[in-house]
Design a protein that fits this description.
Blueprint (H helix, E strand, L loop, with lengths): L34 E3 L20 E2 L35 H7 L11 E2 L6 E3 L2 E2 L3 E11 L37 E5 L17 E6 L2 E11 L6 E3 H6 L11 E10 L3 E3 L4 H17 L2
Parallel strand pairs: 6-10, 7-9
Antiparallel strand pairs: 1-2, 1-12, 3-4, 5-6, 6-11, 7-10, 8-9, 8-11
Length: about 280
Amino acid sequence: MRVQSLTLVAASAALIAPTTFPATAPPPRTDPPARVLLPGAVDRTGAVRADRSGVRVGPVPHVPAGPWAPPSPDGPAPGSEDRPRQAGSEEPVRAADLLDRVRECEPVSSGRYRSDAGAPADIPVCGTREAVYWKADLDVDCDGRPGDRCNAGTDPHFSPATAFTESDGRPLDAERLPYVVVPGPSDTWDHREDGVRGGSLAALVHGDRVRYAVVGDVGPGELIGEASYAAARSLGIPADPEGGGVASDVTYIVFKGSEVEPIEDTAAAEKAGERLARRFVDGD
């Protein structure tokens, strides 16, 4: 049973349209490059930069939306086919390799979480130098901007806000953005102390599928195991917010100190997520 996520409401500003128009059309606008914070990156001067958590900062070029930008909810589910691979590119990270890497658990949480209200508290958050991870169920989070699949009529726990927002201040779109939910800070575990923030990159593993997402919402302090509608669909999991999800066997791996900016750039998250997963598996 899904419990409504905690949310932070962001204010939005109105844009005033101009009353006159130029004689000629302005040049087409180009989107600014996405920025992804990755450990060990070097800036253009050759100096290693660090933010307050000690994470090295480095830009990743903007990648135009491709096959893995989440499609319309009415279209084919992302992940319904094998991921395409360009000629000469490295094989995608396999689910088996990631699962082997997280086989052992060194707990970073001082206690354990429940998958649902009333369930046993038996899920620890584990950690390595590079990532934190847990194995749980997947409850479908439909919070954020309402759409055809995620709204107050389809989800009894629906909230129109998310803890983290898009670059324009609007709530995230659970129908289109694969995101995971982390427990709210508590005596059990405070995700912020392990370099996890809004936009942090995550690898999700279910069966033989590996998909990438961002941290997008914060949930109750005693529960774990929740991801967005789009994340569920990408893994081939029923995404109905009331009766969907899966009861077990989803592995969440969140890479410490990483961050996609803007948070809604799914193409950048896919590219950087694969890169971090490869480094994680290879032990770099």
